[in-house]
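thread: overnight batch results

M.L. [08:02]
morning all. the overnight job finished for the chain we discussed friday. pasting input first so we're all looking at the same thing
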Amino acid sequence: MYTTYHLNSAQDINSDILDAIKAAFKSKPITITVEEDHEDFELSTEMKSILDERLQEDEKTYLSAEDSINQLNKKYGL
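M.L. [08:03]
and the structure it wrote out:
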């Protein structure tokens, strides 16, 4: 079981959240991971270049997202 809390600020962490975690998981072992939320994602120059190259590809050889994912799963076991 897992639970995700999305907070607007670290200042929003309070005892209610801790009490909710304790109630949900009781005496089970848990792991708490804290990560910064990156809403302002920016493409790097390299990413933009790759996307521009993809836009120039012949549509006849185009792979759908589903086909691409299937090939990646097959090749890398993702």
